[in-house]
Write a structure and sequence with these properties.
The chain is an alpha+beta fold. It is built from three helices and eleven strands. The strands form two sheets. The protein has a seven-stranded antiparallel beta sheet with strand order 1-5-6-7-10-9-8. It has a four-stranded antiparallel beta sheet with strand order 2-3-4-11. α1 runs parallel beside α2. It is globular. The N and C termini lie far apart (about 40 Å).
Length: about 220
């Protein structure tokens, strides 16, 4: 008889879904979400990856992913106070950028097409809450489930108020559950009017996200 995927792997044989262990994982996932709400305005440029026509790809072997960025973007050193932030990049002289945070999980977690609705609802309620209550968040425009290179997750589009300038900006905030890691990818357009110009570029960047090992719950075509 087929069993449903609970999002928590079995030990040697199938085991019952442990709600308490899932809640512990969710609590760890939640730590540090708020740090993505505002951009760092004084970072030193770092070396770019291998150049490709118009875009270049950067690999992060320690974190098991790679991603492509526009050739005219700068790559900056992540903030030293949070080693889980592995990439900060954007258009030089602007506040249009992307940040990627990779958080280790104490227990492997994946969401698949067969994960029970009750488990999916647990994750969504947590992410909804942290976005809705995030400092400076003004209006959540869209919230939806997404799938990127085989990893399931959630995406939120919302406006926020920048604490330094008082300007309104927009974030596309993505959570991807990848086995032993959670990837948090945040695209920022500041002011909000820049989002219409940057949206296609943001879409191309997230489409290029590739997991470098077998932690993907299901195979998917590589992004070009």
């Amino acid at each position: 008889m087929a069993t449903q995927d609970t999002g928590i792997p079995a030990d040697n044989k199938a085991r019952k879904f442990d709600r308490n262990r899932l809640l512990v994982v969710l609590a760890v996932v939640a730590v540090g979400i708020g740090i993505f709400l505002f951009a760092n305005r004084s970072q030193e440029p770092a070396a770019k990856g291998e150049q490709e026509p118009e875009f270049f790809r950067i690999e992060f072997p320690d974190h098991r992913f790679s991603i492509r960025l526009p050739g005219d973007w700068e790559v900056f050193q992540p903030e030293r106070q949070d080693p889980q932030i592995v990439l900060v990049a954007g258009v030089s002289g602007t506040q249009n950028n992307v940040r990627i945070r990779v958080s280790p999980l104490p227990q492997p977690v994946t969401i698949t097409d067969t994960t029970p609705d009750s488990v999916v609802a647990e994750f969504q309620a947590l992410f909804d809450g942290y976005i809705d209550q995030g400092e400076g968040v003004k209006e959540v425009i869209q919230r939806q489930r997404v799938k990127v290179d085989g990893l399931h997750g959630w995406q939120y589009l919302y406006t926020f108020t920048d604490t330094q300038t008082g300007e309104e900006g927009m974030h596309s905030h993505i959570f991807l559950l990848g086995g032993t890691r959670m990837y948090v990818i945040v695209f920022q357009a500041l002011p909000t009017s820049n989002y219409g110009v940057m949206a296609d570029t943001f879409d191309e960047i997230i489409t290029s996200f590739e997991v470098m090992d077998s932690e993907q719950p299901t195979p998917s075509p590589s992004a070009s």
